[in-house]
Specification:
Layout lengths: L1 E2 L2 E2 L2 H18 L4 H8 L4 E2 H8 L3 H13 L3 E6 L5 E6 L7 H22 L1
Antiparallel strand pairs: 1-2, 3-5, 4-5
């Protein structure tokens, strides 16, 4: 593995792959980064999240549970009738900001490339 003029050992490459796998285990899949992106605008109720992300309630529940376990989302049960549940990002989730921004920029550029290639 080569990075900006540096050569890495087999051991450092193995550790880098493990770190990447750890990251993907936490935020990988179709929905987690989408949910983090939606929640960057602030607290959302469960149904709002489902609508805005375009995700079924069953899958949303599972994804939110995993995000909560990994310390990226807080769940708050509101004392209302009927009971409502709000979700918000934790301070720890902000450590993913550079990742989300980089993926956004890459996605925009990739879409442009696809459009240009199809012309």
């Amino acid at each position: 593995m080569r990075e900006a003029g540096k050569y890495h050992t087999d051991e450092s490459c193995k550790k880098a792959r493990l770190a990447i796998q750890d990251t993907l285990d936490v935020v990988g899949g179709k929905w987690k980064l989408v949910l983090i992106s939606v929640l960057r605008d602030g607290k959302k109720k469960f149904n709002e999240l489902s609508r805005e992300a375009g995700i079924s309630p069953r899958i949303l529940s599972k994804e939110l549970q995993e995000l909560e376990i990994n310390g990226l989302v807080n769940r708050n049960v509101c004392n209302t009738k009927p009971v409502t549940v709000e979700y918000e990002l934790t301070d720890y989730s902000k450590t993913l900001s550079d990742v989300v921004i980089a993926m956004h920029e890459w996605g925009v550029n990739h879409r442009k490339k696809l459009i240009e290639d199809s012309l």
